Amino acid sequence: MSDPLTRHSYQFVTSRGNEYFCDVDEEYLTDRFNLTGLNTEVQYYQYALDLITDVFDLECDDEMREAIERSARHLYGLVHARYIITTRGQHKMMEKFKNADFGKCPRVACHGQNLLPSGIHDIPGQSTVALYCARCEDIYSPKSSRHACIDGAYFGSSFAHMFFLTYPNLQPVKSSRRYEPRVFGFKVHASAALARWQAVEKEKLAERLSNEGLETGFEAEEGEVDDGSSEGGEDGIDDMFGVAKR
Asked: Where are the alpha helices (DSSP H) in the chain?
């Protein structure tokens, strides 16, 4: 590797399940300005930082060591979110993007567009990482369960969009193609979709009003429809076969 890396950082980014992360330069990790405010967000902050920068020499039991290692992973993730919006960090993520290290868009109309990791929230613990497609401008869940548990805050909600501002040449043409449902080659009429949507929304509204203990009025309406349909049905059958009413 051309960049100086600590042993712990190298082990982290090369371990299975951490393929979305790029390596954070040791110089960036040791600059206290880049770590401003993180001491209040990470338990055992100093020990975790010492572990990441390979100066950890505390004698402790296995339970304490495991807790510090968890904090070190969390600290590295938070620093990573800051690093990848720097010029150096974006360049490293650009190389991974070009290599499709983050996967390709599963949408057929996007024709295998490369994805970028993105956080839905910037606060840790709110959501896991998503994958952003710049062609359809939508987000997807990672295929692998190893990646699906990564905190989205380790990438942030701004990175993917800042990336394409930095590298506009990598911005794909927006996809305007939409799938059109067809039956035997004919488009499904819009009124059919509207009727289905209205029926679903009516059921949701009735359920919501019922849960609030309010009269919906839908019950009487349905009862009237049922009564009318049953009477009309019988009369229609009698008339059809010429059966006289008694």
From this structure: 7-14, 26-29, 45-52, 62-83, 87-98, 145-148, 159-166, 190-211, 218-241
